[in-house]
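User: Here's a protein and a ligand (arginine). What would the complex look like?
Assistant: Let me lay out the input and then the predicted complex.
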Amino acid sequence: MAKMWAGRFSKETDPGVNDFNSSISFDARMYRQDIRGSMAHAAMLGAKGIISAEDAAAIRAGLEGILSDLDSGKLQFDPTAEDIHMFVEAELTSRIGDPGKRLHTARSRNDQVAVDLRLYLREEIDEICGLLRVLGRVVAEVASEHTAAVMPGYTHLQRAQPVTFAHHLAAYGWMFARDLGRLKDTQKRMNECPLGCGALAGTTYPIDRQMTAELLGFNGPTENSLDGVSDRDFCIELTSALSILMMHLSRLSEEVILWCSWEFKFLELDDAFATGSSIMPQKKNPDVAELVRGKTGRVYGDLMTLLSMMKSLPLAYNKDMQEDKEAVFDAIDIVKLCLSTFAPMLRTTRVLEDNMRAAAAKGFINATDCADYLTKKGVPFRDAYKITGELVGYCVGKGLTLDNLPLHIYKRFSEVFEKDIFDAIDLKACAMNRRSYGGPAEELVKGQLEKLKKIFAEEGLD
Ligand code: ARG
């Protein structure tokens, strides 16, 4: 494609440099936003008398034609074009002639790309939030079905205290709720329009930046033209929010992987969401969860790419910044793929409550409750803690549990123990009596789940 900036040059660009320089292979996906931005710009140029009303109308009609031809596939991207901006402008000019050449008045690709990217990411955030809401609802629904399923809660991956599966899953619900909030915050902050910043120093034309900002649905124009074209905080913020989201998803994935193992067997994946081995006939592998865990690293890598790319860049636009798109697009694509695959996997997973309960019965997760029993009967907590520790030591030595230890043995350790110790350390009671705010008691978790369902409802709270 002929260069629009060829005037100053006396030689053709080296073909290798052409390819090296070109971004159309990855920025073509912003064609709708590019055209939308150009339409707003042309409308403003027309309204301010910078170009004639006829030219503005011709540009609009030409751009509409290009948009529908690209949408339908009638028009293909030219891989030799430098970028999506050049492609659309050249196509417009070839269709409508001189008015097309007036479109770029009072504009630079520097503000153009900045506006395209904000428009594009703003829409992608809506889509990601939609997928996140679906996952959040799945989490809340699955949890609702298991509010009485006692399972061991872990610290250091050692059985610690009794919780329920619903309580455990709801914890992820809150992580995803924060992710939703972070994405919405990012979207709000990026909703300022850099169009009209020009190359870096604005323009002498009497442009109306309020008008273009409004036409494009932004809250207003960016305040400083240098900042407007050189800011990529919104890419970094978004990729950072996506990294945190992936971190949450990878933690849940790791638990799914562990829980599907024979060592745990708390979960059984649906056959449609598991894979087999080419050599081991017995295998049912949690590949989806493993891939989510693995892809998390890629999203972190994208964040590092963006941070490193922007580090120490002088103002204003530098070509380095063309590297922003592949990183942020990669992060978006991965997150969308992971969210949309993970949600149905979780929805169809069988929860093996009996195995959870059996695991909860081992590992002395009611030891704290035993100590609390003594404390409630007047024994100072530290003494109660020591007595219980000795009891656990005794049980470990004899292969017993606190539940099947006879009362007369209890009494050897403390005279305070009575028959009601067995009620106090009953696993179900241990979980259900934890009624402190945020705890695993059924009615409390149900309350949490109601809140989560509201947050993740289709038109949920922001
Ligand atoms: N393709 C470029 C990018 O993605 C567009 C801006 C180019 N600006 C320039 N002065 N070369 O960043």
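Summary: The first helix runs from residue 15 to 21.
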